[in-house]
Every structure is written in structure tokens, then in C-alpha cells.
Amino acid sequence: MSDVEMRSGSASPVTGIVSFLSSTEREGRWALPRHLRALAVLGNVEIDLRDAVIGIGVSVIEAVAVLGNVRILVPPEIAVECDGDAILGNFTLKYQGRVNTAVANRERTIRVTGTAYAASVSVIVKGPDEDVLTRLGRNLGLKRGEG
Length: 147
Hints:
Layout (H helix, E strand, L loop, with lengths): L2 H6 L5 E7 L2 E4 L8 E7 L2 E5 L8 E10 L2 E6 L3 E10 L2 E7 L8 E13 L2 E7 L3 H10 L8
Parallel strand pairs: 1-3, 2-4, 3-5, 4-6, 5-9, 6-10, 7-9, 8-10
């Protein structure tokens, strides 16, 4: 519990996403709680933070996958700390697209912890899709190398 929580006498709520033999997605505009638990048992959980409202400070996502998958998409302007374990599986942090890690500020940080048991937990920092940018430039009449 942080000093602020101790002084105010209230702890931040912990919410969760559970997927058992199914698939659960959280995407679009939604507020990320300070502590989110994601559990996938023989199923998939996908958490897309690219349009989510993320508060200032550290938000913790505790991801546990058992014979399943947890996939977390993070925009490049959010700092990411990833510390998890894998037993017969993988727990990875990947950067896709045109990601510039210098863009991430420390005001908003996502800390991902947890374990993958014969499963996969993937944290993907996803930058803008180059194909979309190329298409947009083509629609605006720009040729490669211009602008």
C-alpha cells in the first residue's frame, strides 16, 4: 500500500478479467484500474491499452496464463516494465511497428508481472502501422522520401 493510500485509508480496487475455455477482450475507450488481474485458463485474454485511459503513476497488470494466452497491447508513449516467469511457456516484451522508445515518458507506467504455465504472456508495444502511414501519404499525393 502506498503512503497516499495509507493516509487516505483506502486502497485502490483490484479488478480482473477471467477467461476459462473462452476468449475475453478489453479494447476501445475504458479506464485502466491501478491493479488489473488477467487470468487465462485454456483460453485467451486480450487487453488493448491503445485507446484506454491510463492514470498518471504506475498501473500494475498481473497476468497469469495456464495452457492459454494473455496478450497486452501498449501504445509507445507509455513506459513498460515487464517482470514475469514462464514454466514451459513464454513471457515476452516485444516492440512492433515504428516504435521510438524515447517517446515513452515516466509519468504513466505499466508494470506487467505474472507467470505463464505451459502458456504465453505477451506484452507488445505497438507503434503506428507503417502500411497505414504509407497509404495515407499516397492518398495525400506524397511519394516515398518526401515530407
